[in-house]
Please model this.
Amino acid sequence: MTLTLNSRSDLVEPAARLLASAIDLGDGGTAEQRRILELVVHNIWHRPDIDVTSLEAMSLEEAEIFRADEVVHRRLRMFLVLLELCRHPLSEEQVVRVDAYASAIGEIDDTGLKLARDLVRESHEEAADHFWLAWSSSRIKLSEAVLLERYERIGAVDPELVAMLKRLGELPRGTLGREYVEFYMEYKFQFPGEGVDNPAFFVGHDMTHLIAGFGPTGPEEVALSAMQLAMNDSEEHWMVFLTGIAAYEVGISSGTSDFAAKAGVLTREGAPELVFEGFERGSKCSGDFSRADHLSMAHLPISEIRKMYSVPDPSTPFPPFID
Model:
């Protein structure tokens, strides 16, 4: 699994102590932070025997044990950011404490850590501007490759792209192309090419939604990004996950579209469990289907594509999420 501690089972309890210590501002962390930490330890690191509320504190000096393994401290840094951004309101004290532990394990130059600093030290709008600028390069790398050059150059409006995508609706039911068109019709979305920013990105992103089996609500967007990160622990997928947390947990948006950011999505009933199921399902996939040439597979049944990538079916019923 890409989000384990580099197969070091001996580091699970020390890692749990590190994360618990980083969120403890004298309150043991907020209820939301403690719940997220529990899911990390129990569902990702598979140690349900660990009680996260009774862990011994870890000093900054002790935290240096993680410096020796770059994979381990990269993944710990990711969870430090996630837990940090789940404190509402985010405080200077929390940012300073997480930065101290991040520095102790060997890295503080991280987009997520910088976002947290900006949120407490600059205006919300400035933090959003800085973050979305950082996101732009990852978005390009995750765009549908066969469309990228043409539609990045043309921009948001292109009737030819719209017509090509709508023709996918003529394919048989159950195919990726037909379900893609049905998805847009059901949710009354504009098709890429009808004025949506970054059309090459959204073709690939929404086809990834369909293969994963996640809808477009806030919790499902974050769950999808968690699944992608577990499939491929890359900088681009870390940015996708961080973008989901920024948009739905922190409540910041780019200001360039009609999207209304939301905050505190992981406080919703069933939402944390859904996100961590995304991590779990992604870890079992045999490849990263979000980086596939989706248009070349549009004629294939989604069920066949899932078999190609060993995509597990959702295993837990969740309440319907409404945005």
About this structure: The first helix runs from residue 12 to 23. The mean pLDDT is 92.
